[in-house]
Amino acid sequence: MSAEAPATTPEKRRILPDRVTTAVRVFAWLSFIAEVMIVGTGGAVRLTDSGLGCGWPLCTPDSLAPTPAMGIHSFIEFGNRMMSGVVGILALVLLILVWRMRKTRRDLWWLAFIVVLGVLAQAIVGGLSVRLELNGGLVAFHYLASITLVAVAAAFLARMDFTGAPRALAVPRWFAITTHVTSLVLVVVLILGVTTTANGPHSGDPNVVRQGFDVTILEHLHATPAYVLFALTLLLTIVSMVQHLPIRRWLMTLLGIELVQIAIGLYQSRTDLPPLSVGVHMVIAALLVATMVAVVTRLKTEEAAAAAPAVTQNA
């Protein structure tokens, strides 16, 4: 007598997750850290005059990698290229991990997808920057694009703990509007800061001389919205603490980062822009943007979570 076939067949184990798992969290953080790090390595290329250390796409007509005879600048520039590969691999792994969530968590899927596209676009822009001998406008765009990718990676981190349920404001409407205005002021600060650096002494190569706006005037133009940003953040922080708003800790963090940035900016203006301080300023700007993204994201909370305290109180 033949054995009967099983009534049900066990479902084939799926490798990719259908929800936010530990693997998704780990690679989301690794991707974010890599995006911040490449801001630092890109700054190192520029601040050590290594921008033209390697040709593109090959360092030499016969070699992808630099040779010892090319000197330290070629290795610094090539190291940044290798970091770009790390950033791309981590972004691609994260995109693959959220593949099964592309319908249930479309927000995470699109954020991961944008980062992958952005990394590819940045590779092209970086190559063009070398081909065009560090054109000031293109180099500035390259940095702003990197900051944008940091913001997108930070948005992924901020939204990981959400379930996809409808969200409602967790703060007063005027507070939310003021926060968005503050974020726009930050964008202005970044654009003016990049413009100031693009016209400064750190062009990326000693033979590339910027012929643009007066750096002294640009420094003042950059500082004015920076102080406005600080004043608005201070106001939001005080109000959030008085009213015990859920984003008060993030606002305190944002305020602290801004204080550090202001201190570094003042130091730079009084010491003729030492390269190390400029590099630190660039990296902290990326962290500032990431923190602002966290603040804006947490202006809303999922309705179920918002209603939970009220249900408990009435029980």
Automatic annotation (TrEMBL):
Sorted keywords for this record are:
Cell membrane, Disulfide bond, Heme biosynthesis, Iron, Membrane, Metal-binding, Oxidoreductase, Transmembrane, Transmembrane helix
Metabolic or biological pathway: Porphyrin-containing compound metabolism
User: What kind of membrane protein is this, topologically?
Assistant: Multi-pass membrane protein
Pfam entry (one)? COX15-CtaA
Work out whether the entry's keyword set contains Membrane: yes
Task: Provide one Gene Ontology cellular component.
Answer: membrane
A molecular function GO annotation: metal ion binding
**Record localization:** Membrane
- Primary location: membrane
- GO aspect biological process, one term: heme A biosynthetic process
Give the protein's recorded name: Cytochrome oxidase assembly protein
User: Would the keyword RNA-binding turn up in this protein's UniProt record?
Assistant: no
List the transmembrane segments.
22-45, 82-101, 108-128, 140-162, 174-194, 224-242, 249-267, 273-296
